[in-house]
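Q: Two folds, back to back.
A: First:
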Amino acid sequence: MQHHIQNKIYHVEILPPKQATEKLREDLKSFTDKYEKVRQSGRCACITDNAMGLLAFQGAECIEELGLAVNKGQVMIHLNTFHTKENLHEILDSCKKLGIEYLLVVSGDGSDRLPKLQPADVGAGDAQSVTSVELLRYIGREYPGVFTMGVAFNPYEPPEHEFEKLRRKFDAGASFIITQPIIEKNAVIDEMLAKYPGVPVIIEAWMSKKISLLSDAVGYTIPEDTPFDPIATLKQIHQDYPGCGVYLSLLGFKTQYPLISETWK
């Protein structure tokens, strides 16, 4: 992962089609087009797992079924705890077969339609529920040396609580961090960087002009008419965090993708 930072390789978020879609063929084509743009440009495609608790096709499943190429180090699969044990292994086996190295392991957003891993499924009988910590340990134990696993860091949570969770994630096998999206320099992220100077950190940049959608993440209401320039903010993130990588969420492929190459030089 440090290689990505040193070589200024963007991490680009791609959402796979939702299973409830009524235009599956069109959505699969859109997924393919975005994936191929990222792959051919040498960036890293980061594919979400049931984002916002909405049942979607799995990233590795889409890549395999569509016959898409996997370049070494250019795919990251998000993996959360809302799966059956059987499905979890199907995902991990598919990633191993395809040569996908990077996993972002998160607890995830649930819903009534999604199953949830139970402590007994991952050999964590002493736990009350399965979080990213238990899932990290299980993957590391069942697939030793196969995956490089990262975790999320939320600077909007109470810092003492978030730093304790981060310590347990590293103890469980995490080796890199991806933050929640920020739009300006953040004191909690600065503290995290000071605590873990040798750990690769990827800063998430909010690329939607609809900045009000960030309200739930930051914990306060951002008015819908708040002006926001994602490209200008991205440039500022590079200046504020020159030693970090950057993850682009909600990127506009038609309008923004051609511009991002100019922001990181």
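A: Second:
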Amino acid sequence: MIKPVGNDFVKRYRLEYNREALERVRGEIGEEAYSRLKDLIEYRLTGREFDHSPTGVKIALAFSAGSDSTAALKILRWAGFDVVPITAKLPQMRQEEVERASREGAIFVEIRGYSNEMEGLIEKRAPICGRCHSMVMNAVERKAIELGAGILATGDLLSSGLISVYPKGDLVILNLPAFLALDKAEIIGFIGGQYKLSFGCPLLWEAFRCYPGIKRFSIQRVLRELRARAITPEIAEALIWDILTR
């Protein structure tokens, strides 16, 4: 599973800052969730083992069945949380992704108007990933509230500090990989199996074919992840080549 960060100054700084963010939501998430999430932070900082028994705390998880959300699922279950994966069933999802989500007990949600929205953006030669993400998260948040989960976790690698865990309406959003200062290389290492470095989804690749100029938005995203040390230079290079050759 995950390992302590050792003497990595940047990761240690982020974890200390994330621990402060956790204190801010202590009242909203309750003592059981607070204590176990604090244990996870301490484990990353010091390697101190902790109780992995079930907490009885339900956490919803925005689950795409990709590497980052799969890592979040494994970590949260390892830490003793009752995790409910919620998957937005999008038209571009491959069958193996649907099957993988189903095996993990995912609840599927539909997004009304999704295809029309994406087609309109592609026709305008506009970036689609941000709008796709917001539509997916809105649907997942509604389902999490309906299920009675007070915490909604994501596989976001970037949102550290005060936005690694924060209140949003009736939920507390927990960007788990960022909260634990995990990077892509760590995630690839512990989810196991074969992992092909590839950027985006079939819908984005279709947009690339129609309007190659929008590739710059995806390259900017990769560079932002590189600057944040969420990915290594080697991973960034592989992802940029993948974008350019689509």
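Q: And?
A: The CA atoms of residues 19 and 38 lie 7 Å apart.
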